[in-house]
From TrEMBL:
Gene3D superfamilies: P-loop containing nucleotide triphosphate hydrolases. Transmembrane segments: none annotated. It is an enzyme of class 3 (hydrolase). The gene is drrA_1. This is Daunorubicin/doxorubicin resistance ATP-binding protein DrrA. It holds the Pfam family ABC_tran. Residues 8-238 form the ABC transporter domain. It comes from the Bacteria. Its EC number is 3.6.3.-. Belongs to the ABC transporter superfamily. One of its GO terms (molecular function) is ATP hydrolysis activity. Keywords: ATP-binding, Hydrolase, Nodulation, Nucleotide-binding, Transport.
């Protein structure tokens, strides 16, 4: 049974860096045992939330708690509740996989007599047992991410936080990362918080918390976000070259770049898409028109917010 105390509670959090308001009165409760995705464009405040919750930075105003513990007044106790994987890999490339885990087991206070068994257990759960003696410098990007999951789990935390964990990984490595994480969650109830730009990776989340300019833009389920996009269409455009891409961005500022090199534009209906093509078709090598999906519904939120 999930605890009645939120795993994470943010109350009216404000944080500024110079004149930039990274968080502007953010309030958010995350239930114990849930899977929550923090979404939003660069600069929305996602990483600042991670830094505050993980005790790396203090809020200017407001209060943040983890499992009822204040992140400022009880920072050491908070860190014992957390396992955090940051966007930039931080494993020691000079150590073996097992030695990386042993170092962090000692750092987090795992009893000396229990460390060997705990390391073996986490290596097995993360599908890393065959790599236990491999020096980290020789691992692939996907393998290093799995080591970071194992390291974050070494002290049996209540909350796992991942800040854009699959950035820079290829499609196969991203899939392997999520498979490893799914296995761990199936073995043990744990709260999972993920920041990401890949909506397809978090379609199975319990909640999507979408931030923009330090504020909550939308807090909903993936199904509710998909319903927001119903009735719309997604125009996928292939620019004819770099100059045409630049011109298209000026003409259609709501268009977004995709990993496959195309640009996507969410529109209300087919007639609106045909109007865009009539005006700017000369800039394109090709195009496709699709029904709106989760990603286009998400992008549509920012179009609505800008009006």
């Amino acid at each position: 049974m999930a605890s009645s105390c939120p795993a994470i509670s943010l109350e009216n959090i404000h944080k500024s860096f110079g004149g930039v308001h990274a968080l502007d009165g953010l309030t958010l409760d995350i239930a114990a045992g849930s899977f929550v995705a923090l979404l939003g464009p660069n600069g929305a405040g996602k990483s600042t939330v991670v830094d505050i919750v993980s005790t790396l930075t203090r809020p200017d105003r407001g209060r943040a708690r983890v499992a009822g513990l204040d992140v400022v007044a009880q920072a050491k106790a908070v860190r014992r509740k957390l396992g955090v994987v940051f966007q930039t890999p931080t494993i020691d490339s000079r150590l073996s996989v097992a030695d990386n885990l042993a170092f962090h087991a000692a750092l987090h206070g795992v009893a000396r007599g229990a460390r060997a068994a705990r390391i073996a257990q986490v290596l097995e759960q993360s599908d890393l047992a065959p790599l236990r003696d491999r020096i980290a410098a020789g691992l692939s990007g996907g393998q290093k991410r799995r080591v970071e999951i194992a390291r974050a789990m070494i002290h049996a935390p209540e909350v796992l936080i991942f800040d854009e964990p699959t950035t820079g990984l290829d499609a196969a490595a991203r899939a392997a990362f999520w498979q490893a994480l799914s296995r761990l969650r199936a073995m043990r109830a744990i709260t999972l918080v993920v920041t990401t730009h890949y909506l397809q990776e978090v379609a199975g989340a319990d909640r999507l918390c979408i931030l923009n300019k330090g504020r909550m833009l939308r807090d909903c389920t993936p199904a509710a976000l998909a319903r927001f996009g119903q009735g719309g269409v997604q125009l996928l455009m292939q620019p004819a070259g770099p100059r045409q891409r630049a011109a298209l961005l000026v003409a259609c500022p709501a268009a977004r770049a995709r990993e496959d090199g195309r640009m996507s534009l969410r529109l209300r209906d087919r007639a609106a898409a045909e109007a865009v093509l009539a005006r700017h078709g000369a800039l394109l090598d090709g195009y496709a028109l699709e029904a709106a999906d989760l990603e286009t519904a998400y992008l549509g939120l920012f179009t609505e917010d800008a009006r």
